[in-house]
TrEMBL record:
Keyword annotations of the record: DNA-binding, Transcription, Transcription regulation
Source taxon at top rank: Bacteria
Pfam families: TetR_C_33
Organism in which the protein naturally occurs: Tsukamurella paurometabola (Corynebacterium paurometabolum)
InterPro entries reported for this sequence: Homeodomain-like_sf, HTH_TetR, MT1864/Rv1816-like_C, Tet_transcr_reg_TetR-rel_C_sf
Start and end residues of each HTH tetR-type domain: 11-71
Residue ranges: DNA binding: 34-53
Signal sequence, start to end: none
Name by which UniProt lists this protein: TetR/AcrR family transcriptional regulator
Length: 179
């Protein structure tokens, strides 16, 4: 940081942009977020975000990191309690914050844009692998629960007459963990 630059204000402005962008994602989805729209909602000039985020992808990655950290705060203690609790925590996040859930798994948008999302998400897989005695079983379980979240959200599973809720998600996770 150059001498004389107020790092507190730089950090505060950066955090404001992330906070505003996060609120926009949660309210209206990824498409609502643009560099100019976030700046306007934050009460900043349209060029201000470029000082902190050189691209829209970098801004989205910072927003996604907030979402991943929020999911981690729910998921990490749930993983410590058991696979069923972890599946329910994951499900709840997908239901309560569906647009953020979408963003954090948009690797096509976020790849190489920063945010170091893998440093947070890798321990989830490692914890599942340890509980399930292998990475393959961990990936199978995560895929199943993630798939249920997506299928329920898009109503694709409703035609089968299945109601996906916390109990259903827990039962699937526990059944797969016991197999």
């Amino acid at each position: 940081m150059p001498e004389g630059v107020d790092t507190v204000n730089v950090d505060a402005t950066r955090e404001t942009l992330i906070r505003v962008g996060t609120a926009m994602v949660d309210a209206d989805g990824i498409a609502a977020v643009g560099v100019r729209s976030v700046a306007a909602a934050a009460g900043l000039s349209h060029g201000a975000p470029r000082r902190y985020f050189p691209t829209l992808a970098a801004l989205l990655a910072a927003i996604a990191r907030e979402g991943v950290d929020d999911l981690d705060r729910a998921l990490a203690p749930a993983l410590a309690r058991g696979v069923g609790d972890a599946a329910v925590a994951y499900w709840r996040f997908s239901v309560e914050r569906p647009h953020m859930f979408d963003l954090i798994f948009r690797h096509d948008l976020l790849g190489g844009a920063g945010g170091d999302l893998r440093e947070v998400t890798r321990p989830w897989i490692d914890a599942l692998a340890e509980r399930l005695d292998g990475i393959d079983r961990a990936i199978e379980l995560w895929s199943a629960i993630h798939g249920l979240c997506v299928l329920a959200r898009t109503a694709a599973i409703a035609s089968a007459g299945i109601t996906v809720d916390e109990g259903y998600v827990r039962a699937v996770a526990e059944r797969l963990a016991a197999a």
